């Protein structure tokens, strides 16, 4: 069976199953959405946001790109962020990185990937790597070094979000706004929060980046 035929059949099965379990769900979804979280994750196929959070349709507003970057100069990214905070008024933003991230791995060196858009996109992560070169070089294990940069990248994205005017303006009027930096461990399926921002200067680091 061709892959697309399989997708369509699987979709039929999924829609039937979910209708059986929650007969009202599609009627409810038709009337609108009010997700509580904006999820900014990596495009990697091994990190399916809704599945790993066991979330139902309507619960998570999602943006994914290579290596879960915050991109203040891209309309695609900023329109998602703008809509999430100004219209949906989500209470939480999650930035989720993951172990063994191919995008971050490509940013471990200055060697071009040969893909113009990707190299441009990865430059900001390469900059995080340069700024933390000493710490990273002290980590002997290659996999641990990569996962450390994954964590540093997540923390940098949380910091960038917290300093955006859009976030400060929209969230200053509301109670307990929060941004969460998380890491997903592919090898165990577990998600861990490493960094939280609760407004103003309240950055909390919940574990070492490594
Ligand atoms: Zn990735």
From TrEMBL:
Catalytic activity, as annotated: hydrogencarbonate + H(+) = CO2 + H2O
Any one GO BP annotation for this protein: cellular response to carbon dioxide
MF terms (GO), sorted A to Z: carbonate dehydratase activity; zinc ion binding
Annotated InterPro entries: Carbonic_anhydrase (IPR001765), Carbonic_anhydrase_CS (IPR015892), Carbonic_anhydrase_sf (IPR036874)
Binding site for Zn(2+): 42, 44, 98, 101
PANTHER family: CARBONIC ANHYDRASE
The name this protein goes by in its record: Carbonic anhydrase
Pfam families the UniProt entry points to: Pro_CA
Key words, A-Z: Lyase, Metal-binding, Zinc
Family assignment from sequence similarity: Belongs to the beta-class carbonic anhydrase family.
Cofactor(s) needed for function: Zn(2+)
Role, per record: Reversible hydration of carbon dioxide.
Cofactor note text: Binds 1 zinc ion per subunit.
KW Flavoprotein (keyword) present: no
EC number(s) reported in the record: 4.2.1.1
Entry keyword Lyase: yes
């Amino acid at each position: 069976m061709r892959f697309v035929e399989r997708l369509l059949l699987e979709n039929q099965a999924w829609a039937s199953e979910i209708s059986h379990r929650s007969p009202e769900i599609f009627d409810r979804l038709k009337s609108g959405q009010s997700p509580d979280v904006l999820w900014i994750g990596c495009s990697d196929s091994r990190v399916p946001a809704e599945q790993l959070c066991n979330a139902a349709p309507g619960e998570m507003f999602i943006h994914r790109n290579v290596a879960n970057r915050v991109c203040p100069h891209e309309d695609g990214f900023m329109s998602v962020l703008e809509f999430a905070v100004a219209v949906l008024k989500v209470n939480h933003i999650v930035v989720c990185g993951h172990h063994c991230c191919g995008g971050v791995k490509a940013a471990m060196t200055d060697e071009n990937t040969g893909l113009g858009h990707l190299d441009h996109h990865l430059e900001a992560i390469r900059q995080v790597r340069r700024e933390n070169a000493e710490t990273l070089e002290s980590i002997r294990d290659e996999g641990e070094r990569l996962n450390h940069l994954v964590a540093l990248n997540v923390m940098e994205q949380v910091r960038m979000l917290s300093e955006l005017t859009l976030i400060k303006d929209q969230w200053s009027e509301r109670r307990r706004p929060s941004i969460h930096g998380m890491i997903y461990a592919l090898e165990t399926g577990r998600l861990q929060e490493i960094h939280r921002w609760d407004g103003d200067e309240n950055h909390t680091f919940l574990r070492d980046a490594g």
